[in-house]
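Let's practice the habit of predicting before peeking. Look at the sequence and jot down your guess about where helices and strands might fall. Then scroll down.
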Amino acid sequence: MKSLFLSAALPVLILAAAPALALAPADPTAAAATNPPPHFPRDLSPEGVKAADDHLALEEVDGVEAKAFVAASNEKALSALTGDRRYEPFRQQAEAILTATDRIPGVSFLGEGLGNFWQDAANPKGVWRRTTLDSYRSNQPQWETLLDIDALAKAEGRDWVFKGADCLAPDETRCLINLSDGGKDAVTVREFDLTTKTFVTPENGGGFVIPEGKHRLTWLDRDTLLIATDFGPGTMTESGYPFIVKSLKRGHPLAHATEVYRGQQSDGGYGVSPMVFRDKAGAVEAVLFSRPLDTFRSEIWALGAEGKPYKLSLPERVAVEGVMGGNLIFSPDQAWRFDGQDYAAGSLLSLPLGVLGPVRLDIAIGADRATIFTPTPRQSLQNVTVLSDSIVAVIADNVVGTLKRFIPSANGWTATELAVPANSAVGLGDSSKSRGQVFVSTQGFLTPPTLSLADVSTGALTELKSAPAKFDASTHVVEQFEATSTDGTKIPYFVTRPKNLAMDGTGPSILFGYGGFQASFPPAYKPEMGKLWLENGGVFVQANIRGGGEFGPGWHQAALRENRQRAFDDFAAVARDLEQRKITSPRHLGIYGRSNGGVLTSVSITQRPELFNAAVIESPLIDMLRYQDLPAGASWIGEYGDPRIPGDAEFIARYSAYQQLRPEAKYPRVYITTNTRDDRVHPGHARKFAARLGDQGHDHLYYEDTAGGHSNDADPVANARRWARHYVYLSQQLMD
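Done guessing? Here is the structure:
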């Protein structure tokens, strides 16, 4: 089975560090406890929170009041942003970068060749195409178009957005195409035949067609899918995700699918997922089901030979990486004791599936044989690729990317280093078990990406493509520093600044952070940022605050639930450290965050407005006392807590920015932006925050795009407009 994922590798770079400066700020939640804001609920029950909310109408995605609010807000925002003299040059520069034909075409193995999804000015919706490896190595690859999304959207009168393809091994001629209407996470799935380059319809060959939904599905064999989806009333969790997996045979309607696994309607997370693991010849090695209990805890079940599922004896916090020779390759995200052996959180392990089942095989497995990799306190497992006889993994070592190959032996695992450029970010792309190869990318803040092909048997990396520079990097330098957070924890961050920056606090600086869901954000080459910001003398700062995965599961879990304030304190500590180093000052410091980063930026503005003069708050979560009622919020309860539980509501209310806004406070002029068709983070969060800012007389900008979804990957031309708006606003606030 081959899946094409539309994502970029996450890179890492580290340079010289300077001494950290300790500060002891006051508790930002103390004043709120003694002097609650005017819209703070009288009681924190769901009913009390709802009664205190005067903007519930803005939660109706296409409601009359909501549409009127969006229209009026957009008119004001566009006047302020697109009317700026910098907007059109920024838009043109961003579009040139995002539609450039000299970008590295990201590829996946596809049959005997390579597949790629490509968007440019001529095909903004994109084309799915393929070529051979030899042709890809050349300066002018010859591409064969498989599916033209622009033409398909025009022919069918739909705003189709390509969300990837899943092709059945070993020949990979039958694929499941995921099509989103307007960029939503929900997709329609249609079977596609690569030999004829046409869709297989139910009438013509019994093709699989799955109506729009947030499906979890995969091939079992050429005539069978394993699918978790909406099977009718009572088959979805409160988050809007499926908890039942069925087997669907070719030529049969979805109503005739046969149940093979069932979780519970009360399950959390993102829905039950079937997983089919295959050997290098395409034969099925194992069929597993991941049943999420909440955002991070799950049960892993296996499908037995008799067709009945059984639960594996695994920790609840676990990442399954693959199957190799009957052994499950996995990483526990918690300290774990099994069979009298102790295993560290964040380690990489290999155990026979038979040992993990209810009827245990009598096999003696020691920790030395089971342990592939154990991290040090400053290391973390970032990417893992499981091949037929070896494993390749990216290990972040103090935020520096390294690449290792692990080979099993009778006495354990042998690790060898695969050579990658020093001080670079390293990412793994698609892999092929049959070929024993994996794509490897490297990049940095000022270094464009390079794509190589690793031959795992020899350990050799062959460079395939190197992206040209999209901005002048000679004027800037990258440094790494540490800030000291409120509790004394050292928080690493990167600064990309002009070499000749006057250290007088006047550097216009963007501080980026995320701090959630164990997502790592090591340095990446951001060409639009380099062109629109760095080339104009700007400074870019990236903070690796707690809540992320830069130092493994412990770094993430340190900021979960009642400890969320640590992430906000870490971010504020970096802002203060930048001021102490005279890189910038509050007048010239802005922040940017999206999605979970919208929690971070909205809270930062309400708790520490004196530290910043700008905030781009994009696709954000903000109303944290009602997030569970806005689809698909309940899936994140493991991260934030459940506001319906009194104790959880109490600690969430201390920071929830929507309820913490105050009319007497002096906030900077913030820019809030989202998307009407975002079905991952509800647009109501952004709308209500903007409306309350306006009610209280705070200057702000709010803009809501009408298409694109949460990922903003629908259209590079539209995405260029988005980035131009961002950087016009930041220039106005931090440079003017």
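How did you do? The CA atoms of residues 57 and 318 lie 40 Å apart.
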